[in-house]
Design goal:
The protein is an all-alpha fold. 49% of the residues lie in helices and 2% in strands. The chain is built from seven helices and two strands, in the order H-H-H-H-H-H-H-E-E. It has a two-stranded antiparallel ribbon with strand order 1-2. A hairpin with a 4-residue loop joins strand 1 and strand 2. Helix 3 packs across helix 4. The longest helix is centred in the C-terminal third of the chain and has 26 residues. The protein is elongated, with a radius of gyration of 38 Å.
Length: 176
């Protein structure tokens, strides 16, 4: 058991040591362009979400001198803090308020515009196909043809018990 674990740790260390030596590293793959950094998902992340009122970490991790002084004042009585200082303390911990998170965006306009553009293009394609691709309608779809076919079926007394011939009055020449 110990030998198996030691072998896995050894292979992991060997892989980590070999990564900077390979040509497929991020620097080589970027071809001289800037490469975006990776995010360590094992560390707590900040996110403004309505369903998570307290994020895993504060919005600002690195504090400057003014922020550090404000954090020291935070430890004292809050009645001595001004409204601006309280807002600044809030902004150190959170990026957005609930009102800012709930504020609607205009993204729906872009989505609806894209949907209408795609519907318009689809309509143009269907129109083009109806003119240039599909053959003409068969003559059997014409109203005159349908009337003649109905009269022929009535003359032949097609399905006289339960069909439409049963609903035709042959003596009067009209529908019952």
């Amino acid at each position: 058991m110990l030998r198996l674990t030691a072998g896995r740790v050894g292979s992991l260390l060997a892989r980590r040591a070999a990564v900077p030596l390979t040509t497929s590293s991020a620097g080589m793959a970027s071809h001289g362009h800037e490469v975006a950094g990776t995010v360590d998902m094992s560390k707590p992340l900040y996110s403004d979400r309505q369903d998570t009122p307290l994020p895993d970490r504060a919005y600002k991790d690195v504090l400057d001198a003014a922020d550090k002084g404000l954090k020291q004042k935070e430890k004292g009585p809050w009645s001595q803090l001004s409204k601006e200082e309280k807002v600044a303390l809030y902004r150190l911990m959170f990026c957005q308020t609930y009102a800012e998170m709930k504020q609607s965006s205009d993204e729906w306009k872009t989505v609806m515009g894209g949907i209408f553009i795609l519907l318009g293009l689809t309509g143009l394609i269907v129109w083009w196909q109806s003119i240039y691709v599909y053959p003409e309608r068969p003559r059997t779809f014409d109203e005159e043809w349908k009337a003649k076919q109905l009269q022929r079926m009535l003359d032949m007394r097609i399905n006289p018990i339960e069909g439409f011939s049963a609903k035709w009055d042959y003596e009067k020449g009209q529908w019952k």
